[in-house]
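Sequence, please.
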């Protein structure tokens, strides 16, 4: 393509987006296209499309897993999501099948090519030629036949930074919204991140984020390394920093501590790809949850998990780690707090509904949380709060692996891993008739019982404390370490922590502020009633817990359920303590 000097000077005076369109129109003319040419997309034979799809199988799989993100962001708008390879050939097409006229339907189907050479200026072809994201709206298309549509496309890059194709969102011109370009970009980021994280031979996955809370965000940096530190790939954000990073030094640092300031504004958090479990702030002491690897194996077979534990013991935290470590990491994690949804909305939000299903419903219907979790994990927190009618409906979904949205008679197939959690003893609720027994058996393929802080062994408590301090240090203007003296650790260890890790974390946050950069000591801690105040004869936590258990059981005439309720412990924990005491 040639642009003569006069054209060049005229072009440089236009706003950037317009310059880009102008360059593309010039190319279109040079390809010999005429504005009034028929829109006659070149369509590849099916066997070639199949071959191309195989070449991009991994990418297409991740794109498919990210569909709930698209559905959530576009919420039933009439548009299509497309992926086209570097030749502009559409290999993936999802979304509203009814939009566009007949010719456009053919042109937006798998196998059709949107390269500028055959279609002139259009978002797919132009994003490929320019290697940047672009929206082409209505009449900005070179061919008049395409003036009725608007499209936004964002390039997808491989872990080594090569162009793999583009993700495009197309709609009728009048229905195109500005945020469609953003959605295309987010979808591209989600796919690129999954490609980096799931590289063969990746041993280390390094996350670069301003703080622990941003670790999961699609815009945080991700780098994949071999065991010897050789770079395998990086996502977009991390690629910007690659030249500034001293990877061997970072790896050496990681082996000592797990969260290290890299430069102003960027902290490094490590994950080991072998286990694919976050090893930094997201690390539970192994002794707290010895059956976690079993949980991952069961998840690989889609066996539902039940996480039980008092409030603040880290149920939600654990589920997020399991998600990251599982084969569904590239899929969504949809967390629903069943206790927080108003009962009149719960079924609609969970199971979804079709247009006009009930008065006040969203015009275009909603997919619902269950379908949003397709190819990912549905985390039903506080499942004990589900009303009986919703329990029945959920049971049917689990049995049939299909969900029937409200107002619809057609079940829709859905594939998700269920993880449920509750701080209530569900077995107890079954006994009381407030939770369906058949649902209890369905959701409880395997129970992960999280201990309360009272039950932590000393070394686990210390390890958790160190981890929380490291995590909080990262938030505090990148203090690399916050220390705490022995007396203060002892004071913290002796408190009974009804709010568990959440409460401990809050107290540490306060202490860090009061310590003003110095080592934390008892003067920085609030007055915490010590467990020793409850029982002066012993400071041994286990025997204190045992004593409480026995005492409470006696008060409740040996009724384990009643004692469990009173102590806010699970019945399993009570039985375990009784067994240890030789009383069961
Ligand atoms: N192993 C851990 N390491 C570091 N922080 C943790 C760990 N487990 C939990 N936390 C932190 O403790 C707090 C409470 O955790 P989480 O919300 O997962 O508890 P929960 O059991 O789901 O509570 P609830 O039942 O009240 O919803 C969060 O801030 C979380 O980040």
């Amino acid at each position: 393509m040639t642009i003569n000097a006069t054209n060049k000077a005229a072009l440089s005076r236009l706003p950037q987006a317009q310059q880009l369109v102008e360059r593309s129109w010039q190319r279109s003319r040079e390809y010999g296209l005429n504005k009034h040419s028929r829109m006659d997309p070149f369509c590849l034979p099916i066997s070639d499309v199949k071959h191309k799809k195989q070449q991009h199988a991994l990418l297409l799989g991740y794109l498919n897993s990210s569909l709930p993100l698209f559905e959530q962001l576009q919420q039933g708008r009439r548009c299509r999501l497309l992926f086209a390879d570097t030749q502009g050939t559409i290999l993936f097409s999802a979304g509203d099948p009814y939009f566009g006229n007949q010719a456009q339907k053919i042109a937006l189907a798998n196998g059709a090519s949107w390269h500028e050479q055959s279609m002139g200026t259009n978002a797919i072809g132009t994003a490929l030629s320019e290697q940047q994201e672009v929206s082409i709206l209505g009449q900005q298309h070179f061919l008049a036949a395409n003036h009725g549509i608007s499209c936004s496309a964002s390039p997808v890059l491989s872990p080594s930074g090569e162009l793999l194709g583009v993700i495009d969102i197309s709609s009728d011109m009048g229905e195109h919204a500005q945020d469609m370009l953003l959605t295309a970009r987010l979808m591209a980021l989600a796919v690129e991140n999954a490609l980096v994280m799931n590289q063969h031979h990746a041993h280390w996955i390094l996350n670069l984020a301003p703080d622990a809370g941003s670790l999961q965000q699609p815009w945080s940096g991700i780098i994949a390394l071999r065991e010897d530190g050789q770079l395998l790939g990086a996502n977009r954000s991390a690629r910007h920093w690659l030249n500034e990073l001293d990877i061997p030094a970072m790896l050496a640092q990681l082996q000592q501590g797990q969260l290290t300031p890299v430069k102003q504004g960027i902290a490094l958090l490590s994950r080991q790809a072998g286990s694919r479990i976050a090893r930094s702030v997201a690390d539970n002491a192994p002794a707290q949850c010895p059956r976690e690897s079993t949980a991952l194996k069961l998840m690989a077979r889609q066996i539902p998990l039940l996480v039980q534990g008092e409030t603040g013991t880290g149920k939600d935290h654990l589920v997020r780690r399991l998600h990251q470590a599982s084969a569904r990491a590239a899929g969504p994690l949809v967390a629903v707090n069943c206790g927080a949804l108003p009962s009149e909305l719960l079924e609609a939000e969970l199971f979804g509904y079709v247009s006009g299903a009930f008065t006040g419903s969203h015009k275009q219907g909603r997919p619902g949380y269950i379908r949003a979790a397709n190819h990912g994990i549905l985390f039903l927190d506080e499942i004990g709060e589900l009303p009986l009618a919703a329990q029945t409906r959920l049971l049917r979904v689990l049995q049939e692996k299909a969900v029937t949205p409200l107002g619809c008679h057609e079940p829709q197939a859905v594939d998700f891993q269920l993880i449920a959690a509750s701080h209530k003893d569900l077995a107890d609720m079954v006994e009381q008739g407030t939770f369906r027994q058949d649902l209890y058996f369905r959701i409880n393929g395997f129970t992960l019982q999280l201990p309360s802080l009272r039950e932590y062994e000393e070394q686990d408590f210390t390890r958790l404390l160190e981890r929380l301090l490291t995590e909080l240090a990262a938030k505090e203007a990148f203090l690399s370490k916050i220390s705490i003296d022995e007396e203060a650790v002892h004071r913290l260890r002796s408190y009974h922590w009804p709010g568990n890790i959440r409460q401990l974390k809050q107290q540490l946050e306060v202490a860090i502020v009061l310590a003003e950069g110095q080592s934390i000591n008892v003067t920085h801690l609030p007055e915490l009633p010590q467990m020793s105040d409850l029982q002066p004869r012993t400071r041994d936590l286990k025997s204190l817990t045992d004593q409480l258990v026995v005492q409470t059981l006696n008060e409740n005439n040996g009724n384990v359920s009643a004692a469990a309720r009173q102590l806010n412990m699970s019945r399993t924990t009570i039985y375990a303590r009784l067994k240890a005491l030789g009383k069961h």
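DSSP finds 25 helices and 18 strands in the chain.
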